[in-house]
Amino acid sequence: MPSDQEIAAIAAAIRAAPAIIPNEKCDWSTSVPSPSVPGRVVELQIYDAPSIASKSSTQRPAIVNWHGSGYLVPRLGRDAYLARFLSKNLDLTFVDADYAKSPENPFPAGLEECIPAIRWTLEQPWFDGNLVLSGLSAGAQLAVSLSSKPVALQLGLTEQEFSKIKATIAFYPVCDSTIPASEKATNEGPVPLDIPMSPLSRELMEFFHNCYLGWDKEVQFKLARDPRVSPQFADHASFVPLFVIACEHDPLGAEATKFAADIAKHNDKHRYYFAKAVGHGFETRVPEIGEQGFVDAPGSLAKKEAYDLIVAFLKDNVASLN
């Protein structure tokens, strides 16, 4: 096991790596106290539909989203374009929520911080009673785990609060942390120009795993089978309708595909999309739909199909969107 100083140095280097952050900004922001980290607040960035005045009391549904991070990298704001697309096309409010990161705040701090973000949204005077959860990569795991009723209740949501969650969107989620990084189909190395993706080496995935669950192998073995960490180990019949997006060139693609197939046996409202010719984080590396150059960009077909299917899925499962 590396020393605390070595872990901190590696984490700092990963966080300092160049990242694709949109120029798009939220309409307004607020924060709620963390239930897990004394003195910390959880930032919420809010995107309102252009058809609705910001902070208007007009009744509307909401999406609460958690960004990808490897449970380590602060990337709040990364999903601004997704927020704009969904808020504009569905006339809803998109709440992009931060969460505590490891190694400073390992499991379960980040997951526990999802609860006040959900609760804040449910308490807003404009909220119409229809909530969608959303996430990408590590953030998708948080969203998916919270979509299982027993897990959500264990984390502190009430039955009434959980009943407001109508559906969940999961981009390339972590589904089974028992699978060693050494057994995952890494996409590391130089990124091919025609495959939009974020490369994930086995070493990087292993470091994320250790920082999040701790370096003790016995503890890791136990936690990796906890539904709060690995949705694959939750009751497959306990989930709200899920839309799972897996990618062809993604180390997490196989586990996301298996998870989607397993839960589909219990609920025909679940949906799955396999994004071909793209990899982890692909949507941030493809121009926005409608922008100049989008049509001819590698990955544009996968992005458009995924986004169109998300809109259709939400309209099928959220009554107030129809």
Automatic annotation (TrEMBL):
UniProt keywords, alphabetically: Hydrolase
Claim: Membrane is one of the keywords in the record: no
GO molecular function: hydrolase activity
Coiled coil: none
Name of a matching Pfam family: Abhydrolase_3
Positions of the Alpha/beta hydrolase fold-3 domain: 63-283
Gene3D superfamilies: alpha/beta hydrolase
PANTHER family: AB HYDROLASE SUPERFAMILY PROTEIN C4A8.06C, ALPHA_BETA HYDROLASE FOLD-3 DOMAIN-CONTAINING PROTEIN-RELATED
Name the record gives this protein: Alpha/beta-hydrolase
